[in-house]
Amino acid sequence: MEDTTENIELRRIEYSLAANRVLLSCLRLRNAVKYNPYWHLQPRAPAGSSDGIGGQWITWLGAAGSILPALQRIAVPALRRLREEARRLAPILRRLPRRWDDTSQPDEESFDDETRRISRSSWQRFGYPTIRFRTEVELRRYLGPAGSGREWHHIAEKRLAGRDGFPAELIHSTDNIISLPVEVHRRVTAKMSSRSPEHGNVVRRLWMEKLPFDEQYNLGLDLIAETLEEMGYDPTKF
Description:
Blueprint lengths: L4 H30 L33 H22 L46 H8 L6 E5 L13 H4 L5 E5 H11 L11 H5 L4 H18 L8
Antiparallel strand pairs: 1-2
Helix pairs in contact: 5-7
């Protein structure tokens, strides 16, 4: 091929494309090697750790190197327990929980060491544990469907997950979830999108999102109870 300017540019493009394909293959290989199928079981460092990482998700085990071998040992029993507790709790999530009281919430120390997801007790649903999830997808994976003619509803809205004061594990926890009849859930959602003079003619959810979690939670419960009563349910027996 004659080394014309056009041919030189063509070869340069071909070499660039080939290099990009090699780079993409390397990136895929790196991600495959680094992928940890047990990432959602990754434990936290104990609160108050002297190295300053208390409460953070652990990505290493000191001189032992990768945490993957340890996760592989605990993964099966931890997953089984998480699934069993979630299935056992799911029917209880049809009931209205108690109003939120910050002084009565489980702290880090009350969560078990095996999964770091299950508390010994819940103030919202007394006598049952609190189970925390990192995402809504994970929550639905373990809790399963809300039931025939029902849908899962976040009391404090799920769109707030990750904002300051609204950690994802608080939003996607069984204390903040309730199984509602479809028609009730849809009316609650419609009310959250409505405007009223009571809220300064601002959309209710936008008015509420400026409030702290506990106030949003209790207002969310009030809205559910109000809607249940309007639709012929007895909130005291729900």
